[in-house]
């Protein structure tokens, strides 16, 4: 069976990927904008926060800076699409590739260790919780706050305008909504959340690494699709809950799979497993939905 | 008041498919007027309405709404003055948003949107009241997804949305064409009622010559991107479909393509 440490570890990463899934929900679901920038904005958030922390910045301010960096990355993708009319998927690939160089520049080397640094987690270790429970508690609070704020936002006038932009842009324009501006705002918000996830991940893992973004988009999508299969996302709050639940269950499932010796799986097989799971989710009937249909050929 | 002056627009300029859709279209619609627009397929009716709304930019000419030149403004900057109902019942509303959310989007048409709750409690009374005037029982279904409604119901709600806030002009592009005859008649009646009650200025495209003469107080016919005739008042009273056809032939010395104009 799964050890307690492995269990909490899965919860911890699950919560972090819950934030990623929020971001993917905004881009893929709300805006209907397939955005792969996240593979670059996740390590960007990690890199920015790690570098600021080793330069002695307050870890929360460093984390805030990571959010802003993610938002800037998202804005670049959205502007490439809105202003220069580059296809959304391609625009995001361009930003993602560019971010690989940016991240190396930010860190000055391929990875930055945070082992002896103060992080957002440091003060929480004094509260008397078991060591491996601390990140879970803190990240749960962060995720719940993000969920609440996102829920309120999606119910606000601006949030509703964003939802209309993704669902029916022509109608949105006719209602006086600047759809281009909404796309920039939404994709920025999405990547800001992913930057936050990257920053928290680096701090809980004790390092930022330039390769840590590989496959984040696919894991986030797997969480989103899985969550939606469990919780029908017919309201905003259910859709957001589906993101978190999907991400946690996904990480637990991975932890079980890696733990079961009979399967002979190892950590490096993770991306392969994820890709296979997402493929199954796309191919299996019943899980078909608009995110999925974006990646399959439409019949004419 | 809205006036279009010498609008010209060519699709696919410089390609073999070059297609001049608007060729000097001029029309002034005065405050409170209800104008019906007819013309054969490809006459440029939809293009004209799209140009007024800002969905397509004209090559030349000028569009003035309430003394403001809006010729170069994008759709969303004209939305405070221009309200629309589309031909496709799916186009005017968001199917995965609820009825009340769609109405909340419309009540802010052309205004700044902030971070306060979109569906405000104080709107609900107004929403219920307007919906109950449709007599479709929708006032009890505010939370239902728009996608659950039939085409006619959606078109009725679209009309309501377009009239929820004041506009300088209401553009209707064959908004009953996709509905069955009975529902179409209901939506048309509703259109007349709303336009009359709220004293709206409206431009309605229709494929039915009879309808064009029966409703509204002025009728214009477009042909090849221009207005070929424009009748109102005494001249229009008692006019019948065959008179319209005669008028068209006299004006243009052309045979009208009967197939493309429903005489019914
Ligand atoms: N986006 C476009 N690109 C290229 N050509 C277009 C476009 N939109 C319209 N056209 C062309 O412009 C001309 C006018 O079209 P429009 O849709 O305005 O006609 P209409 O009077 O609304 O016709 P209908 O009665 O069939 O709705 C047509 O020849 C049409 O093919
Ligand atoms: Mg048309």
Automatic annotation (TrEMBL), chain A:
Alphabetized GO MF terms: transmembrane transporter activity
Bilayer disposition of the protein: Multi-pass membrane protein
One Gene Ontology term, aspect cellular component: plasma membrane
Signal peptide residue numbers: none
Residue stretches spanning the membrane: 6-28, 63-82, 89-108, 128-153, 174-201, 207-227, 239-258, 270-291
Cell compartment(s), UniProt: Cell inner membrane
Family, per entry: Belongs to the binding-protein-dependent transport system permease family. AraH/RbsC subfamily.
PANTHER family, alphabetized: ABC TRANSPORTER PERMEASE PROTEIN YPHD-RELATED-RELATED, BRANCHED-CHAIN AMINO ACID TRANSPORT SYSTEM, PERMEASE PROTEIN
The protein, known as: ABC transporter permease
From TrEMBL, chain B:
UniProt domain ABC transporter: residue ranges: 2-249
GO molecular function, one term: ATP binding
InterPro entries: AAA+_ATPase, ABC_transporter-like_ATP-bd, ABC_transporter-like_CS, ABC_transporter_ATP-bind, P-loop_NTPase
GO cellular component terms given for this protein: plasma membrane
Intracellular or extracellular location(s): Cell membrane
Keywords: ATP-binding, Cell membrane, Membrane, Nucleotide-binding, Transport
Membrane topology field: Peripheral membrane protein
The keyword Transmembrane belongs to this UniProt entry's keyword annotation: no
Main location: membrane
Family: Belongs to the ABC transporter superfamily.
Listed name of the protein: ABC transporter ATP binding protein
Organismal lineage: Bacteria, Pseudomonadati, Pseudomonadota, Gammaproteobacteria, Pseudomonadales
